[in-house]
Amino acid sequence: MTQVAPTLQAFFTDRLARQLQASPRTIASYRDTLRLLLCFAQQQTGKPPSSLDWSDLDEPLISSFLVHLEADRGNSARTRNLRLTAIRSLFKYAALRHPEHAAVIARVLSIPPKRFEKRTITFLTADEADALLAAPDPARWEGRRDRAMLTLALQAGLRVSELIALRCADIVLGTGAHVRCEGKGRRQRSVPLTAPTQTVLTTWLKERGGRPHDPLFPTRTGRQLSRDAIEHRLALHAASAAKWCLSLQGKRLHPHVLRHSCAMSLLQAGVDTTVIALWLGHADVRSTQPYLHADLTIKERALALVTPANVTPGRYKPSDSVLAFLEAL
């Protein structure tokens, strides 16, 4: 093996796992990025990953890999930047262990993230959310599971990773009902549950009948649902709901839209943005600002507060000959 292989292994076992104590989701994301990079480098150089050296992973190859992500794999600029973050983290670690390759590493670290258009967030109105919750078939086990899952996601604003990781014991019913979850950066939070959500979850937990550490929303075989499975179920129910809720036909729904919808419902109810940030598990209240941009009702209220100027329509006419001269220049 060359110098890349042991450094790559130490990056995961020493740097991420021991020193940074990175979350399993972060480790999995970095693993996928570097696996894609090494496979791409093998195609470009003809060398297997165990034979690659740092001189093979130079700036032109890394730049070509980033282009490949967008052009061939269809990734967005945001995903491209996420992959670049993982690569930069590895190369920063390699810079300490391989100063002889400082020039190659420095050129890779100089690759900038790509700017991208920040679109207005997509969210569901109250009518659209009701139509989506009514779409799962209550006569089928999967339909009852999906209705409970979508209800909780819409009310608590959970990320899809948090939804997948929920266990039966994470739901606390009765007085002070809430759901416990662990978000980004291992930040744990509890989100209160409304009475309708409690009713749905109570019925589901009785049918679910799992042990405390079993997945709250499992597959038929009792395994944890995957991200792709949740996206597929959401797309299926959205297509069904769009048949009688026409406004859903023009919206592309993904699990994060449910989180956006929760935030928008809180914002439109007059909840302060700092409380919304705590509700959603944001590390910084600035992460809540996009919801302000997306809410037209806030802007309409601001417009209503502006008193129109009582100015008589007409054309300005200078009252002095010198001013008239200056105006004519």
Describe the structure.
With 329 residues, this protein is mostly helical. The chain contains 15 helices and three strands. The chain has helices spanning 4-19, 24-45, 59-71, 77-97, 102-109, 126-134, 141-156, 160-165, 195-208, 227-241, 255-268, 273-280, 289-294, 296-305, 321-327, and strands at 171-172, 178-182, 188-192. It has a three-stranded antiparallel beta sheet. The chain is flat and about 85 Å long. The model has no long low-confidence stretch (mean pLDDT 88).
Descriptive terms for the model:
single chain, 329 residues, mainly alpha, hpI Integrase, Chain A, 2 domains, 3-stranded antiparallel beta sheet, 15 helices, 3 strands, 56% helix, flat
**Total discrete domains:** 2
Strand proportion = under 5%
The number of E-state strands comes to 3
Q: Per CATH, which architecture of the largest domain? A: Orthogonal Bundle
CATH fold topology of the largest domain = hpI Integrase, Chain A
Could you spell the SSE succession in H and E letters? HHHHHHHHEEEHHHHHHH
Residue-averaged pLDDT, rounded? 88
Low-confidence stretches: none
Kindly, what is the distance between the CA atoms of the first and last residues, rounded to a whole number of angstroms?
Answer: 78 Å
Helix and strand composition category: mainly alpha
Gyration radius from CA atoms, angstroms: 27 Å
Helix content: 55-70%
CATH class of the largest domain: Mainly Alpha
Main beta sheet: strand number and arrangement? 3 strands, antiparallel
